[in-house]
Amino acid sequence: MQESLQLPGIRPGRFLDPSAGTGMFISGLKDVPEVHCFEKDKLTGKILSSLYPESRVTIDGFQSIQPYYNNYFDMVSSNIPFGNTRVYDRDFDRSEDVVRKFSLAAVHNYFFLKGMDTLHEGGILAYITTSGVMDSPQNRPVREWLVNHANLVSAIRLPDNLFVDAGTEVSSDLIVLQKNTRKSELTEKERNFIETRLISGSININNSYADLDHIVHTSVSMGKNMYGQPAMNFIHEGGVGAISEHLRQLLAQDVENHLDRKLYDDNLSRSNNSTILKTEFETLLETAGETERQEVQEESSAQPYEPMLNLFAAYADEEQAEVQVVESRPSPSRAPSASRKKKGDEPEMFNLFSQENMYDEAATQEDMTGERAAAEAKWQERRQKFEEEQKKEMEPRPFTGEIRSEYKNGSIVKSGEQYGYLRGVGTPEVQFHPLKLTVTQQYRTAYYIPLREAYHNLYNKEAETETEQPELREELVKRYDSFYRMFRELNGKDNAKFLLMDAGGREILSLERSVNGKIQKADIFSVPVSFNANEVTHVDTPQEALAASLNKFGEVNLEYMENLSETGRQELLTQLDNRIFYNPMMKNYEIKDRFIAGNVVAKVEWIENYLKDYPDDDASKKSLEALQKAIPEPISFELLDFNLGERWIPVSVYEEFAGYLFEAKAHIHYTESIDEFSVSFEETNANITDKYYVKGEKRSYYGNDLLKHALHNTVPDITKTVQDEEGNDIKVRDTEAIQLADAKINEIRSAFTGWLDEQLPEFKQHLADMYNRKFNCYVRPDYDGSLQSFPFLDLKGLDIPDLYDSQKNAVWMLKMNGGGIIDHEVGTGKTLIMCIAAFEMKRLGLANKPMIIGLKSNVHDIADTFKRAYPNARVLYPGKEDFTPEKRVGIFHDIKNNNWDCIILTHDQFGKIPQSPEIQQEIYTQEIDSIEENLAVFEQQGNEVSGWIKKGLERRKENLEAKLEKLEQDIKDRTDDVTDFKQMGIDHLFVDESHYQNFLIFSFDIINILKFSIFPI
C-alpha cells in the first residue's frame, strides 16, 4: 500500500499526513525535506514522534493546523478517519460556503476540504477513506465541491478484505485529487464522480465504478457492509502482494493520463501569499466615514467658501459640522488649487486644522531664493517627521487600559488621546486599533463612552447586589442628558448609525423606547430592572406575614414576621397552629404544605433518632405526631407485582436468581447513567449453551445474552439472508429465531416471579419493606389558598363573582413552591391561574420578571385575560409584526431595561431568545464529565460491556467537545450586543400547552437559572 501511493515521478518537497497513526504512510517516504504529521491520540502521537524524530509531529486534531499552512504543501496523504463525528473549525463554521459548514458534521468530509486548503495550486491529495464518500447520495455536495476545486486524478475501490488483518471488513476507496481552483469545466470522469445510482434495493454506488474496471477485486457478490446493511462485497483472493500490484497499475495509468505535471511543477513548494481581509467592523467604520466625507465634499462643492467652524457649529447638524483633519500638502511645482481662487472680493478662508492653505500658492522653484528653498526643505523635513509619527500612532498596539466586563471585540475605547476599537478581548494580548474619526465622530465618542460605562456600572451593580444604587442612577441620567443636549435622541438617524459601529451600541440604543411614536427613557433611569425593589413593610394578619416571609426568604422567618405584623412570636405560633411545624432537621419552622409532604417515612425515622438525644423538645414531638399520622398504609408482599429487571431491586438478588436458574455463579452489573445491564458467568454449562440458546445466522445468543434481554425486557433483532426475485442476497428478520428467543426470555422472566414466591418469609418482608421505604413513603401536599385576598384583581373586568377554590389553591401552590405543574381539565381556568400567579409573584417579590409563553393560537387570549384581570399592569406582548429579525433585538433589550409586570410570548418567539454561551458551555462540560465517568466505569468492567456502547459514548464525547470548542471560540470572538436570556432578568416561566413543540429541549438549558410553572393541557 505504501509503495502504491508513491505516485510515479512525483517527489514532494512538503508532505502532510493529517491522521498519521504510527506513521505507516510516511515510513516509505524518501528524500522529502519537510514532513508534517497530525495525530490526535496522545499515546500514538508520542510513539510517532519517537519513530520519526525528523518529522514535525503535532499531537492534536487536524483542525488545529494554523492558517499559515494554507496553500503550503505539495502533497497531503493519509488513511483518514470516518464517521459522523462532528469537528469544529472556526473558519469553516463562519464561512459563507455551505459545503464547508456541511463538512463539519462528518470527520471524513472535513478532512477532504481542509486537506485541499493546505495544498498549493497543483498540489496532490491522496486519501484512503470509507466508500460512503463516493457512494452516499447525501454526500453529493462534497463531491461536487471537490471536483470544482481540483482535478480528479484517480478513484479506485479497494477490496473489502484488505483490512481483515486490522480486525475490520470495510469498503474503502483511494481518491487522488490535484488542486486546481482555476478550472473552468468538468471532465466526463469528474461528472461521473459526482453522481451515484441505485442498483438494487437500497444499494447505491458511484458512477465512477459503472464498469468495475477501477475496483480491485477478483469476485463480487451482494451482501452486507460492516453495519449489516445491504451492500456489494468486492473480494480479492490474491493477498496483499497481488492487491498492491493491481493498485499500482491502476494508479500509474491514472497519473499518466490525468495528472497535470506542469501545474504541479510550476507551483512546487511556493510560499503562501495570504490576503488580509478587512473586518466587518472596520468596513462599517470606513463606510460611515466615507459617507461623512462625501457629505462634506458635496457641501464644499456647493459652498466652497464655508465660514470657519465655531464652537457651536461642531455640535449642530452633522452634515455641516464635519471637516477632514488631515490633508496632503501639494508639491511646490503644483499649480494653485482651483478651489483656492478668489471669486470677486470674497475673502479667502483657511482650514484651522491643516497648514495646507499656507502653501497652496507657494512660489515655483524658479522664483524661490536660497533662503526660501532652505525654509521649504526644513518644512518638508518637519512634515515628513510629523507624518511618520502620525503613521506610527495609527498602528495597532497593546491596550493598557482597564478591560471592563462589557468590552468585546469591536468595542470603541479611548487610549491616551486616541479613540479606537479592541481586538483579542478574552486573550492575554488585547490590541488597541486606532481609528481616524471626523471631528463630530470624536465629540460623539467623547460623550458616548461615559454614557455606556454609566449604564453598565448601574445595571451590573444592581444585578450583583440586588440593592438600589441612587448615585449610579444619577450618574446615568447625567450622562444621558449631556449626550441628549449635544446630539439629541440616541435613536436619531445619525446617532444610531454611529452607535452601531460599537460592539455594545445596540444595547445602549435600548435606553430609549418608543411609546405612541414618542421617544421615552427606559425604566432603568428611574427604577431597578434587574431585581424587585418593592419591599413589603407591613401586613395585617399572621397569614400575610407568613406569605411575605416565604416570598422574601423562601422559608418561615419568625423575626421578620413579628416585625411585619407587629405580633409576638408566641401569638404568631398560636394563630398559625397546624399551618407551620418545627422541623429539627432544618432547625426552623416549615409550612404544613412542605413539612407534611414528600418522603414522610424518612422524616419520621430522622426525628425519632433526634428525640432520643433531645427528649424534651415538645415542638419536635408535635411535628413527629403529625408526620406519623400522614404515613401511607404499607403494602404487603402478596399485593406487590415484581418484575425481573426493575432497577430498585439490588443486583445481588438478580445474581442469586441467575445462579439458581443457570446453576452457575453469575456477575451482573448495572450502569445507571446509561440504564444498561451487563451479565457474565464464571463457568459454562448446558443451561447456558443449550437450554437457553438461540442460533442466528451471524451470531449465537447464549444464556447470558438472553438474561440480559430479560433484564431489559427486550428481544434481540435477529436477521437472516434470503434471495429476492432477481437472485440478489438481502437481509430480512428471522421470525422463527426471534420467536424462539422471545419464548426463552419470557420463560426466564416467569421463573423469576416463581423463584421469589419460594423464598423465605424474612426475604419477602425485606423486599416489601424496601419497596415501601422507596416508593410507598410519599405524601402529596394539600394546598389551601382560601386566605388569599388578591389585591388589584379586577373581578368585574373578568365578569366573574369570584375565583374557583381550585384556582385559589393552584395559585397558592405556585406561590409557596415557587412553581409547579397545573394539570387541570380543559375549561377550569388555567389561563387565569397563570395570569394571577404571575402578577401575585411580581407583587409579593417572589418573581422579578415573570414570562408566560403559549401557542400562537391562544397567546392573544392570554394577553387579553391578563389585561382584563389587571388593567393597570405593565405587560409586554409583542405581535408577529413586532418580532421580525430587524425588531427582535430591540425587544430583547426592551425586556432587559424595563420593569415589566409580565412578558407574554409564543413558543416560537421564546425559542428565538439567544441562550448564554457560558450556560451552554457549562452544560456541555457537565455532559462530557458524565461521559468520561461512564467510560472509566467501562474500563473497569473490561469485556463485560458491549463495544458499540463504548464507541457510541466516545463519539458522543467527541461531538460534544467540538460543540464546546465552538462555544469557547464564540465567547472569545463575541462582538454582538444581543441580550441573551440570562441577561434579561426573567426569573419565572409559565409554560402553557407545554406538551406542544420541543419546549423541554430549551428548558433543560435554563432550568438552573429560573423557576417553572407548567400547564400541560
What does this entry show, briefly?
This protein is α/β, with parallel strands linked by helices and 1017 residues long.
Question: What would you say this structure looks like, in words?
Answer:
The two termini are 64 Å apart. This protein is 43% helix and 15% strand. The longest helix has 27 residues, at 439-465. The chain has 1017 residues and is α/β, with parallel strands linked by helices. Mean pLDDT is 80; it is low at 270-283, 292-364 and 997-1010. α26 packs across α27 and α31 crosses α32 (859-869). Strands 3-2-1-4-5-7-6 form a 7-stranded mixed beta sheet. Strands 28-33-32-29-31-30 form a 6-stranded parallel beta sheet. 32% of the residues are buried. The protein has 37 helices and 33 strands. A hairpin with a 7-residue loop joins β14 (418-423) and β15.
What is the 3D form?
flat
- What's the rounded overall pLDDT mean? 80
Main sheet: which strands, in order across?
3-2-1-4-5-7-6
Number of helices: 37
Cα-to-Cα separation, first versus last residue: 64 Å
Total count of strands: 33
Which regions are unreliable across 5 or more consecutive residues at pLDDT < 50? 270-283, 292-364, 997-1010
The gyration radius over C-alpha positions equals: 38 Å
The profile of the biggest β sheet is: 7 strands, mixed
Into which percentage range does the β-strand content fall? 15-25%
Quaternary structure state of the chains depicted: single chain
Judged by helices, strands and strand pairing, the structural class is alpha/beta
The percent of residues in helical segments reads 40-55%
